[in-house]
């Protein structure tokens, strides 16, 4: 079974009053290219997320977006211990009153409280780490669900691509079968064309028969496509076998080998009918090459 590199998955969870939303999408790429948009509070976990994406999705251009929202407001900047901002605000207001400052701007005090770090409180730090770990546990579950959905999307897309591959290979096999039939009448035609060419040059029937036969053999060997026909048939069968393995790189390599044999048949055949069949086979092959670029 093959997998497409195009995929999309999403997941949503809740932790108390916090909404967690994860989206994962992937596109085709020769290499592994990962972009993560993660809140600052979870930036230390980005490496873990990247490793998990590489392990599960293997290859392609991947993008993960993690959104944290609380009461419809973005809370990606930080997660403070319960009541810490209120404590800062109360203390700042008390200090201002003790210092005899009049006309206290409470809005300014509140903004100042929002920007203050933890005042060397080990309990607060421990609480914050525990909250981050609890949050990460739920976030990672959401990441796993989104990736799983993305892989299922890839599998569905891969099944469609696999059916197309089988259709294109069948079309090329049909063209090859017609080439085999045409090749049976092509060789006698070469001999007849050479004989007519000699007669048009004014030579009579009494020309050297032995030399003529030598020339016929030479051209028949030059235009012979027996090996190419066998190799092409083998490559087509092997392409179907690779579909069962699900190896996109192998499929791409075999598509190149199939193209090489088709081109050789076209250049050596020296037959208009076979040339038209070759054009049709190359058209089907181009469709295969377009799809192999998106196969994992």
Overview of this protein structure:
GO terms for molecular function: hydrolase activity. The chain is α+β, with helices and mostly antiparallel strands and 296 residues long. The chain has eight helices and five strands. Strands 1, 2, 3, 4 and 5 form a five-stranded mixed β-sheet that branches. α1 links the parallel β3 and β4. α6 packs antiparallel against α7 and α7 packs antiparallel against α8. It is rod-shaped. About 4% of the residues have low confidence.
Report how far the terminal alpha carbons are from each other: 10 Å
Question: What's the shape?
Answer: rod-shaped
Helix-residue proportion: 55-70%
Q: Could you spell the SSE succession in H and E letters?
A: EEEHEEHHHHHHH
Low-confidence stretches: 73-79, 119-124
Number of helical regions: 8
Summarize the structure.
This protein is of the alpha+beta class and 296 residues long. The protein is built from eight helices and five strands; from the N terminus they run βββαββααααααα.
Can you tag this structure with a few keywords?
single chain, 296 residues, alpha+beta, five-stranded mixed beta sheet, 8 helices
List the helices and strands and how they pair.
Elements: E1 7-15, E2 18-27, E3 32-37, H1 46-57, E4 60-70, E5 73-74, H2 84-98, H3 106-115, H4 122-200, H5 209-223, H6 226-245, H7 248-269, H8 272-292
Parallel strand pairs: 3-4
Antiparallel strand pairs: 1-2, 2-4, 4-5
Helix pairs in contact: 1-4, 2-3, 4-5, 4-6, 4-8, 6-7, 7-8
């Amino acid at each position: 079974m093959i997998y497409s590199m195009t995929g999309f998955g999403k997941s949503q969870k809740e932790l108390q009053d916090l909404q967690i939303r994860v989206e994962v999408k992937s596109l085709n790429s020769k290499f592994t290219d990962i972009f993560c948009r993660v809140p600052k509070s979870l930036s230390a976990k980005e490496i873990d997320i990247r490793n998990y994406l590489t392990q599960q999705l293997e290859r392609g251009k991947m993008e993960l977006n993690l959104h944290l929202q609380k009461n419809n407001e973005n809370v990606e900047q930080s997660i403070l211990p319960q009541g810490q901002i209120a404590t800062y605000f109360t203390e700042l207001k008390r200090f201002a009153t003790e210092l005899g400052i009049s006309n206290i701007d409470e809005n300014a005090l509140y903004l100042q409280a929002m920007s203050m770090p933890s005042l060397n409180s080990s309990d607060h730090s421990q609480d914050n780490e525990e909250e981050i770990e609890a949050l990460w546990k739920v976030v990672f579950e959401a990441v796993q669900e989104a990736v799983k959905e993305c892989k299922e999307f890839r599998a569905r897309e891969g099944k469609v691509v696999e059916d197309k591959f089988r259709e294109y290979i069948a079309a090329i096999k049909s063209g090859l079968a017609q080439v085999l039939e045409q090749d049976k009448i092509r060789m006698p035609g070469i001999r007849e064309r050479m004989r007519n060419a000699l007669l048009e040059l004014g030579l009579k029937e009494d020309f050297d028969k032995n030399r003529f036969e030598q020339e016929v053999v030479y051209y028949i060997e030059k235009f012979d496509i027996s090996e190419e026909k066998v190799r092409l048939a083998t490559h087509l069968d092997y392409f179907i076998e690779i579909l069962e393995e699900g190896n996109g790189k192998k499929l791409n390599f075999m598509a190149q080998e199939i193209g090489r044999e088709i081109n050789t048949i076209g250049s050596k055949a020296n037959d208009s009918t076979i040339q038209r069949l070759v054009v049709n086979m190359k058209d089907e092959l181009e469709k295969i090459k377009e799809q192999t670029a998106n196969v994992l």
